[in-house]
Amino acid sequence: MQARNNTSAALAALALMLAPALSQAADAGLPAIAAFQPAQVKAPDTTLAAKAETKQARPASEDALRETDVWGRIRSGYAIPDLDNPLVAKHITWYSSRPDYMARTTARASLYLFHVVTELEKRGMPTELALLPFIESAFNPQALSSANAAGMWQFVPGTGRDFNLKQNVFKDERRGIVASTDAALTYLQRLYDMFGDWQLALAAYNWGEGSVQKAIQHNRALGKPTDFESLSELMPAETRNYVPKLQAVKNIIANPGQYGLTLPLINNQPYFTAVDKTSDIDLTIAAHLAELSVDEFKALNPQFNRPVITGGEHTKILLPQENAEKFHLNLAQWGRALSTWTTHKITSARERIETLASKFHTTPEVIRQANNIPQKTVLKAGSTILVPKLATSANVDIAPEVADNAVVALEADRGGKRGRGYKAARRHSDDDDAPVKLVKAHVSRYQHKSRHRNED
């Protein structure tokens, strides 16, 4: 994978990646979602100058307005010129011969497509762009590439920051459904404005706009055409296949029965809604109040990296429409602590996890699990970690400036006094489920009166 470091500072570069179908977030039994009225995007003309002037969508046709599911809306808004070459045929065969893969991917997509298509229509962009996460991440918001590109739209850290996607210990908005979709569509529109051609914009999304510009200059100097297919011989294999892959998915969605596939019904209504929260809340408690499993909650809120959601009223969570009302009703009756975690800043390398565990009445494994600290590593001075709340911090939220600037710096454990606490940690680490069990135990001890559901 290439990381597009040669792009302009204004746009930066988006990581090159075809993420596998990582299915642990939401693989089966996902609820259906739905659609909105589509807008027809005017197909670009054959010259770059003309294309740049005709990017805006036409009003939705009456047929489009009558569409009853999101797949119909996507078909109604197709506007990128079709490719028809051997690479497209190759990728159609690949996708259509893997019905289980397509079923998992479309099931995950059913949570997000209503929102993505609605945003595309608002901007007057071609609706087949809603299918791009098929290629990038198989619609898995937890997807992470070897180039550290994350989320459904696969942003590398630098490009994410260029598009205001917050990345810190507590949150990575490259994975957030709403924030990353807004950033991806903004980036794609900028690339279209630059090249006046959606196929070239897609190539730049994968390869970097600087690389596409150089390829155009190369062909122009030789008097050759500068469309995608004419430039494709200059592209790396991944980019050369990128638009054909999208075309293959586009063809399958246009007529799934022709390829022996069935798409899940996605009704014409929003699947999720944004819910305000007023204070820090444990992720497991939020899921419990919404009457969702932890996996169902994480499928809509994958940006939260830690067991507590910080940010007070400035941070929203996404919930299925029917569960949002349950959340509010259950929250009104909760009457107990919503968060069991606070922060502690490491001031000295001598602060070992075993010592901290004793100070905060927990175990080393709970602290490691809550902060993603691997075994055989220690914390460097300056790190800010989650620790269980004590009585003195029971009603205190984590300050926004602390959450925004928190870092966790690690180094290899090179020995030192280990004693009984270290031996106990080693004993527990032999059980693969021990860290999860111990986090459960921490929450249970802190809120034994509440008897809320713990993280599974």
Automatic annotation (TrEMBL):
<feature type="region of interest" description="Disordered">
    <location>
        <begin position="415"/>
        <end position="436"/>
    </location>
</feature>
<comment type="similarity">
    <text>Belongs to the transglycosylase Slt family.</text>
</comment>
<dbReference type="InterPro" id="IPR018392">
    <property type="entry name" value="LysM"/>
</dbReference>
<protein>
    <submittedName>
        <fullName>Transglycosylase SLT domain-containing protein</fullName>
    </submittedName>
</protein>
<dbReference type="Pfam" id="PF01464">
    <property type="entry name" value="SLT"/>
</dbReference>
<feature type="domain" description="LysM">
    <location>
        <begin position="342"/>
        <end position="387"/>
    </location>
</feature>
<dbReference type="GO" id="GO:0008933">
    <property type="term" value="F:peptidoglycan lytic transglycosylase activity"/>
</dbReference>
<feature type="signal peptide">
    <location>
        <begin position="1"/>
        <end position="25"/>
    </location>
</feature>
<dbReference type="InterPro" id="IPR008258">
    <property type="entry name" value="Transglycosylase_SLT_dom_1"/>
</dbReference>
<dbReference type="GO" id="GO:0000270">
    <property type="term" value="P:peptidoglycan metabolic process"/>
</dbReference>
<dbReference type="InterPro" id="IPR023346">
    <property type="entry name" value="Lysozyme-like_dom_sf"/>
</dbReference>
<feature type="compositionally biased region" description="Basic residues">
    <location>
        <begin position="417"/>
        <end position="426"/>
    </location>
</feature>
<keyword id="KW-0732">Signal</keyword>
<dbReference type="Pfam" id="PF01476">
    <property type="entry name" value="LysM"/>
</dbReference>
<dbReference type="InterPro" id="IPR000189">
    <property type="entry name" value="Transglyc_AS"/>
</dbReference>
<dbReference type="InterPro" id="IPR036779">
    <property type="entry name" value="LysM_dom_sf"/>
</dbReference>
<dbReference type="GO" id="GO:0016020">
    <property type="term" value="C:membrane"/>
</dbReference>
